[in-house]
Write a structure and sequence with these properties.
The chain is α+β, with helices and mostly antiparallel strands. The protein has 7 helices and 7 strands, in the order E-H-H-H-E-E-H-H-E-H-E-H-E-E. It has helices at 16-26, 31-38, 43-58, 90-103, 115-132, 155-170, 183-188; strands at residues 6-10, 63-70, 75-83, 139-146, 174-178, 192-200, 208-216. The longest helix is centred in the middle third of the chain and has 18 residues, at 115-132.
Length: 223
């Protein structure tokens, strides 16, 4: 039974301020987000950069962003960003992205970012993505986060199920990169580990982070 306190719906430009608030809360202790951004970038600069980034994503045909709103506050307190199966050619995507950058200008990275670290992280992520993810065939969960004040209420599962039902109906696989905190949720939703992405964060931080790369095969659709 649906919870009347919450509403699941596509996000819009008006959703962006609370999407940013939720992102910051959900990943406050994430070593990647902290080392690359939070510990170095001012909140106004990070907010401005994320606003431009999310605005571009909402304008991209292959991206779908859904959020769960707390009906009492009107804020998006959990959200997911999907990349749907698409046949966008590399040149077509590059031209589209260039146009979006011109229409919605912003720095490549927010002022103060640890650019060397961020380039390392995103290059590593892209390497594994190219190995396992087939954009013309699969769904890809790019982001999933729930505000810390609302965790444990099943909101992430609700967002995942909304998209996974579509993947199942189409007989498609789904790819995701999982943190240690997220992995148990994804295992319960039918994902399996296919690899591990290890990143030695030295000299930026004295820790080696292991994120799990996971795949979910389409499940039988119940009549």
């Amino acid at each position: 039974m649906a919870n009347p306190q919450f509403t699941l719906a596509p996000c819009s430009l008006a959703s962006i301020p609370s999407m940013i608030e939720t992102h910051m809360s959900a990943f406050a202790n994430d070593p990647f987000f902290s080392a690359g951004f939070v510990s170095r970038v001012s909140l106004p600069d990070l907010t401005r950069w994320l606003t431009a980034r999310y605005t571009r994503q909402l304008s991209s045909s292959e991206i779908r962003i859904f959020g769960i709103t707390d009906n009492q506050t009107g804020k998006v307190i959990s959200w997911i960003r999907w990349e749907y199966p698409n046949n966008l050619a590399k040149e077509e995507k590059e031209q589209r992205d260039k146009k979006l950058r011109e229409e919605i200008p912003c720095e490549t990275w927010p002022i103060g970012t640890n650019e060397e670290f961020c380039k390392l992280i995103f290059a590593t992520k892209d390497k594994y993505k190219q190995k396992y993810y087939k954009p013309e065939e699969m769904y890809f969960v790019q982001f999933l986060g729930t505000h810390s004040a609302y965790q444990g209420k099943g909101l992430a599962k609700m967002l995942l199920k909304h998209g996974l039902d579509l993947a199942d109906a189409e007989g498609r696989k789904t790819y995701i990169e999982a943190t240690d905190a997220g992995q148990p949720v994804y295992l319960k939703m039918g994902f399996r580990d296919i690899d591990s992405m290890a990143v030695n964060m030295s000299p930026f931080a004295e820790v080696v982070v292991h994120n799990k790369l996971m795949m979910r095969d389409p499940q039988p659709v119940q009549a």
